[in-house]
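Field reference: "sequence" (input) and "structure" (output). Example, Enoyl-CoA hydratase:
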Amino acid sequence: MSDSFETISWTIDDDGIATLVLDRPDQLNAFSVTMARELTEFFEVHAHSDEIRAVVVTGAGRAFCAGMDLTGEGNVFGLDESVRPTPEEFAAHYDEEPYNTGVRDTGGKLTLAIHSLPKPVIAAINGPAVGIGATMTLAMDTRLASTKARIGFVFGRLGIVMEACSSWFLPRIVGPAQALEWVYSADILTAEQAREGRLVRSLHEPDELVPAAQELARSWVKGRSAAGVAINKQLIYRGLGAAKPLDQHLMDSLGMYYTSIGDGKEGVAAFLEKRDPAFTAKASELPRIVAD
């Protein structure tokens, strides 16, 4: 890991499972502009290393992430209050200044980076996860929670709106009615309420949470083709916005074609020879299966 990071740390085990820790325990891992930048850099750059096969995200100390650090000076969200973009201007120039750093939601930049990573990402929610602490996990592929976890979509209590692309992710995970109820109420959910609402996959005792998440990640990638895992992730998420089955057919046909002449050959040979496969394709060298 890089020594230049102030708010996060990570380790990588022999199976390529990276455990990323939000590391501001004295501040309950509150999300700052610095943490936003460092997490985004991790998911845009470091996590794309072929050394990393999957990522487990958790928090140091007793919290996962207590939400945005509201103690900063000026605009606590790091935004430029001098600009007044129209929707048309923003859509046309969102990746240019002053909009890129002055208007774009920092949490959204992070969740876009998580979503685009061609590898499994698992949240191990070890304690309070409020605001961006909750919404950043929605871009991850699944969420495990400690029995001590508390989760809150509390925008209404702060006079702000859903961020971090959560208006796209949350209703797709739990359904629009449940998403609206949680956002309207802005209540803090218990771990059991989150599980009952299908937000989290499973509940675990605190000392068993991270090992369970790491083992789940390991079961998804060990003995699997890194390219196959990556393309399957792409196919499923792309399919959420496909207008018709033909769109998926075109994508999965190319995915099937390119894997059949790559790791698929080794997979078939290993099956016939009753041995473990030795896949070699890399997530960093995927074939293109989606038209520009």
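Residues 225 and 279 are 6 Å apart (CA to CA).
The mean pLDDT is 95.
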